[in-house]
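Morning. Coffee machine broken again, so started the prediction first thing and wrote up yesterday's gels while waiting. Chain of 112 residues, entered below exactly as on the submission form.
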Amino acid sequence: QCNLAGLWKNDLGSTMQVHNVDNEGNFSGTYHTAVSSAKQPIQPSPLRGSQHLDEDGKCTFGFVVNWKSFSDSTTVFVGQCFVDDKEREVLQTAWLLRDKVDGVDSNWKATK
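Came back before lunch.
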């Protein structure tokens, strides 16, 4: 059974702290990225998300990180929790990052 509550670390050294997941699957926490193109020093940033609570434990989830403390961007993550052959919980995710741009003419370069 996957439980998103706790401290997670990815291959690049970013960490995510998820607080308790409520009965509806909602959660909050902080994300501390290890990589950024922002000119300001990296700071831990708030996240809010939702987990689909499944009886089989193979939950899907999504969350949003607002990088407001050091950047004008927002990232959304979606993923699924798996248990590997060593009985470890593993999150597999995909993400989209949206930078703020000055106008609609620059919209093409705003999402990574």
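The two ends are 32 Å apart (CA to CA). Going to sketch it on the whiteboard this afternoon.
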